[in-house]
């Protein structure tokens, strides 16, 4: 059966270096995605590949 799924979002404010934001904006434009989508995907990728080894 088809079910409509709704993703819940929250608003947060983060301070980031100007150069990083400019680079992210450029990549988002090149890939035709929103800046928000790009940042979300980058954060998820980083978390998925985080080295959890304590040593």
UniProtKB/TrEMBL annotation:
Name of the protein this chain belongs to: CopG-like ribbon-helix-helix domain-containing protein
Superkingdom field: Bacteria
Organism: Agathobaculum faecis
GO biological process: regulation of DNA-templated transcription
InterPro entries recorded: Ribbon_hlx_hlx
């Amino acid at each position: 059966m088809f079910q409509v799924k709704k993703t819940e979002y929250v608003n947060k404010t983060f301070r980031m270096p100007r150069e990083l934001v400019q680079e992210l904006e450029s990549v988002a434009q090149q890939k035709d995605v929103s800046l928000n989508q790009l940042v979300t995907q980058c954060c998820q990728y980083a978390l998925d590949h985080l080295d959890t080894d304590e040593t």
